[in-house]
Amino acid sequence: MIVNGSSYREIAGAARCSRGAVKAISTNLRRFGSTTAPPNRRGRYRSITRPMLDALRQHLLEKPDQYLEEMEVFLWDEFEARIPKSTISRTLRSAGWSKKTVRRVAKEQNPDLRDFYLYNLSSFHSYHLVFVDESGCDKRVGFRRTGWSPLGTSPVQVTQFHRGQRYHILPAYNQNGVLLSRVFQGSTDSEVFEDFVEQLLSHCGRWPEPNSVLVMDNASFSSI
Q1: Could you write out the DSSP letters of every residue in 47-109?
Q2: 136-161, pLDDT tens digit by residue?
């Protein structure tokens, strides 16, 4: 009735209320788009404004393993605002974010290449395949195991997986076990790898015999 332009007296009679109540409701609709006015603010103003919180959450989506000290620096660099760590933590939790274990994803992952790899393997049987890979004892590379994310989701850290080996292992294995392996100190170069493959060929058969297809990590078939 207010929208249709009825008088306060007509509306008050239909709703069985005072004309003052109808006038107050009409004013609220015009000012606030609701029949009730927003509540009066209580307490002090928030230190982290909505734009600051939105920027911080976007930053954490890219780098979920940030420490509170680093978030302080980020907010200062972006907004020149000194926000205490306790305020940052409390604001994130009130916004539905929590700290949990980070799931790391390598940058090198490529779904299209993975599908193409599975397509190439589909023409072979399992007894055809001999897998050659490089492994070893890695230097300890530190990474943060926990990060921030919204409730119900796991934080994902996209990073490069660095490996620094002290001892290397070159294994070749099929569905029945290890065919050949070599353990040595130092790094693997092309000369060492080619010598290993040449020795491995004596344990392999000719196509389409068993052990006739070599599958090497990060190596194209044209280089075999």
Answers
A1: SS-HHHHHHHHHHHHH-TT--HHHHHHHHHHHH-----HHHHHHHHHHTTEEEEE-EEEETT-
A2: 665 544 566 678 778 778 777 766 55
